[in-house]
Amino acid sequence: MKIVELRTTLFEFELDRVMGDANSPQGRTKSGTCLVELITDEGIVGISIGGGNSISQIKLLFDEILIGSDPKAVYSIWKKMVDRFFKGGHDGIANDAIATLDVAMWDLRSKVNEEPLWKTLGGSKKTINAYASDIALPLNDDKLRNWYKKMAKNYGFKSAKLKVGLDQDSDLRRLEIMRNALSINNDDPILYIDSNEYWSPKQTIRKVSEMEERFTLGWIEEPARRWDFLGLKKVSDALKTPVCAGENLDTLGDFLPYFHHRSADVIQVGHGMTGITGALQIADAAYGLELPVTLGGSTGILHAHIASAIPNCITIEIPHPEPETKVYKWDVKIENGLAVLGDKPGHGITIDYEELNKSVVNKISVKSGPSPYGRRAGAGLYEVPPTKNEIKAANSK
User: Fold this and answer.
1) pLDDT tens sequence across 225-235
2) Which long-range contacts (CB under 8 A, 24 or more apart) does 27-32 make?
3) What is this structure's pTM?
4) How many CB atoms lie within 10 A of CB 97?
5) If I label 282, which of 244, 290, 332, 396 is the partner at 20 to 30 A Cα–Cα?
């Protein structure tokens, strides 16, 4: 059996809520991405969703490395893809291309094995601890309250994360809202917060210290710039709350300063870090240092499969307990605050091609990306509260 064909399809869809963070307080209502399919000469299809900005690199890697390859040879193909970008480095768009293809390769391999991905990866747990994640700083208090109540009532979440950063009084109030919503399942729910690199280390210490007077926090996520390993350590040393970081790094090499300086208390890994193969390497390195890891949100709750094979994983992020579009379905279920893995071969994501055809676009629009407005002015220097126009735009969506 060998890989013989590559297909890529760009598509967009409407989100179920306005999503944004401290860098994008007016939020977005659309998501744009790409379906990547690897097809073998026996008709088995491995799929991955992502890489919409790296299609040219995906096609280059397919033409130079993947075509004609054994679909089970995931590790050797991953190494060849990484080596292809040796001189310029495999961060950025090159990383996105490698990561997207690596996921499709693992889907293929587990389908060839006729078993779910979590088993192919060596996992043994069918239930994975999870937390609800709003990613919805633009939502007003009432909408936020209703969303967390739904997550607690319908899916049994006992822990959740809140986007913070632009207004301390609002952040404190909304933390209370989140805690109260979760309290139907747990008298002492775990509360995580995420400032998305908006604060400087000193701003983080000042603000989180005040939060700690009222709340017990599970972690503060991205409390400084991703490369500021000394700033992250400063935050960790100054607070009772653990520092969680690494979401926007790409490779194992990027994490070495974190490990060397013990900059983060919880390490974030994900399939976007040169794929599932890269994520497992980073998790293994963290395991060697007795550091816990967490995995962020993922289409199809793919990260639950990876988490099953990571002994030091403490929880995974769930922004969408169910598909946010009719284009795809998945067989991971959320029950009692846990991600329950399915038994379909592969990662369990299936495509409705009729619905896909309705959503196809020639180009992904700028405002359908995860951070459509870039980093907010003043970030790390001075605070810029949401403007009246931004608040109006968020509430009108």
Assistant:
1) 999 999 999 99
2) 27/136, 27/137, 27/138, 27/393, 27/394, 27/397, 28/367, 28/368, 28/369, 28/372, 29/397, 30/365, 30/367, 30/368, 31/324, 31/325, 31/368, 32/361, 32/364, 32/365, 32/368, 32/369
3) 0.96
4) 29
5) 332
